[in-house]
Amino acid sequence: MLALAEQRGYEEITLIGAEGDLLDHVLGNLYSAARSKLRIRFALRRGLAFVIRGGESRQFQGLHDARLSVMPLTPCSGVNLLGAEWPLTNAQISPLGLISLSNRASDAVTVNLADGVAVVFLAHPDLEQPVWT
To answer: Does the N terminus or the C terminus of the chain have fewer Cβ atoms within 10 A?
Structure first.
């Protein structure tokens, strides 16, 4: 599906229903997103997730007290997480090493990395439905 979107000239895509209850399928979806050149957003049951690649910086607004995680899909270097309770500065994270799980956001969060691919999960604990922005 992602290859077809790329062939048709899309630059970004939102994936819905990709979390499911089969862990192998969830991981397969995340790694497919990591391989793709598309800018990818996942619409989840309780929030959103964004794939971020080396050289990219993303800023998220209006997240006061939101739960966030930065999960590396490949080894990542030069990782910066600003505006979080436990920030990262020029960190190295990897699937089998350091990750940032269940962190807490201030009002604005910036995530960037020099190299690698990671996914940023954003969820509000008091929401039953995601904020679609």
So the answer is: C
Residue boundaries of the structural domains of the chain: 2-123
pTM: 0.88
What phi, psi does 28 have (nearest 5°)?
-60, -40
Residues 6+ apart with CB under 8 A from 22: none
DSSP string across 40-101: EEEEETTEEEEEEETT-EEEE-S-TT-EEEEEESS-EEEEEEEEESS-EEEEEE-TTS--EE
Q: Report the CATH number of the 2-123 domain.
A: 3.40.50.10240
Q: What digits encode the pLDDT tens for the residues 106-132?
A: 889 999 999 999 999 998 655 545 555
Q: Average pLDDT of 52-76? A: 93
Q: Which two tokens stand for residue 29?
A: 């979806």
Q: Which amino acid is at 27?
A: L
Cβ pair 71, 96 in contact under 8 A: no
